[in-house]
Amino acid sequence: MTGPGASYTNVEIADRLERLADLLELQEANPFRVRAYRSAAEVIAAHDVSVAELDDEGLTAMKGIGKDLARAVRDLVEAGEIPQLTALEREVPIGLLDVKRVPGVGPKRAITLWKSLGVTGLDDLEREARAGRVAALAGFGEKTQTKVLRGVEQVRAHRGRLRSVDAEVLVAPLVAHLADAAGVERVEVAGSLRRGRETIGDVDVVAQSDDPEPVMAALRTYRGVRDVVGSGRAKTSVTLEGGQQVDLRVVDRAAYGAALLYFTGSKSHNVELRSRAAARGMRLSEYGLFDLDDDGEPGVRRAGASEEEIYRALELDFVPVELREGRGEVAAAADGTLPRLLQLEDLRGDLHLHTTWSDGADDVATMVAACEARGYAYMAITDHSQALRMTGGLDAEKLARQWGALDDFEREHDGVTILRGLEVDIRKDGTLDLDDDSLERLDIVVASIHSHLELGRDAQTQRVIRALEHPQVNVLAHPTGRILGVRDPYAIDLDAVFAAAASRGVAIELNAAPQRLDVGDVDLMRAVTAGCTIVVDTDAHSVRGLEHMRFGVTTARRAWLGPEHVLNAWPLARVRAFLAKR
Ligand SMILES: [Zn+2]
Ligand SMILES: [Zn+2]
Question: What is the SS3 assignment for 375?
Answer without folding.
Answer: coil
